[in-house]
């Protein structure tokens, strides 16, 4: 557990904790933007549009992150208060991993939807907890700069999604969707050893 937050310089452990926590923002940005890269080949492979006027299946695939994130944000605070920030961040990372596996290995449309919902849960739980954790471990002088790292990481994740799509190609959509699981696994391993918030 980190000592109570004091004024002064950030410790190396605190900086590491912030860096690994902001992987939630990176994952959110990546998963929201990579859909723009992979949507066309997925639409073709799964026949998401019967014709120009019946693309409901495609619209559902894109939008299912939103209800997942809404539920995740509602339960994220409760889980964080009950089980601690670290454990809740681990749950968020697990949701991202499950979502990445479901999406990259999807054989049916139902698996695509389940994967997007799992990603949404990870987004909601992670954002409800990550910013709180960062604010609680950062020193007063650095708190604002540290919390905004979540938003910066989100933009970086979005850029990574587009860059990966450009380098790998949209038809390797399973690889592009599964890649998010790597960052989520790194975060999961990291939060196991990171200190708990002194406020919890």
Automatic annotation (TrEMBL):
It comes from the Eukaryota. Signal peptide: none annotated. The keyword Mitochondrion does not apply. This is Major facilitator superfamily (MFS) profile domain-containing protein. It comes from Vitrella brassicaformis. InterPro entries: MFS_dom, MFS_sugar_transport-like, MFS_Sugar_Transporter, MFS_trans_sf, Sugar_transporter_CS. It is a multi-pass membrane protein. One of its GO terms (biological process) is D-glucose transmembrane transport. Keywords: Membrane, Transmembrane, Transmembrane helix, Transport. GO terms for molecular function: transmembrane transporter activity.
């Amino acid at each position: 557990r980190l000592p109570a937050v004091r004024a002064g310089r950030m410790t190396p452990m605190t900086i590491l904790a912030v860096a690994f926590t902001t992987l939630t923002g990176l994952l959110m940005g990546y998963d929201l933007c990579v859909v723009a890269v992979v949507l066309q080949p997925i639409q073709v492979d799964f026949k998401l549009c019967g014709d120009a006027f019946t693309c409901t299946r495609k619209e559902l695939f894109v939008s299912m992150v939103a209800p997942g994130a809404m539920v995740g944000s509602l339960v994220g605070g409760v889980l964080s208060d009950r089980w601690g920030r670290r454990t809740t961040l681990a749950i968020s990372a697990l949701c991202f991993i499950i979502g990445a596996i479901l999406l990259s290995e999807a054989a049916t449309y139902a698996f695509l939807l389940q994967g997007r919902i799992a990603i949404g849960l990870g987004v909601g739980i992670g954002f409800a907890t990550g910013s709180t954790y960062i604010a609680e471990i950062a020193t007063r002088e650095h708190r604002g700069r540290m919390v905004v790292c979540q938003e910066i990481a989100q933009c970086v994740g979005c850029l990574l999604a587009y860059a990966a799509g450009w380098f790998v190609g949209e038809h390797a959509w399973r690889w592009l969707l599964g890649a998010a699981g790597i960052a989520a696994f790194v975060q999961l391993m990291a939060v196991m050893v990171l200190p708990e918030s002194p406020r919890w």
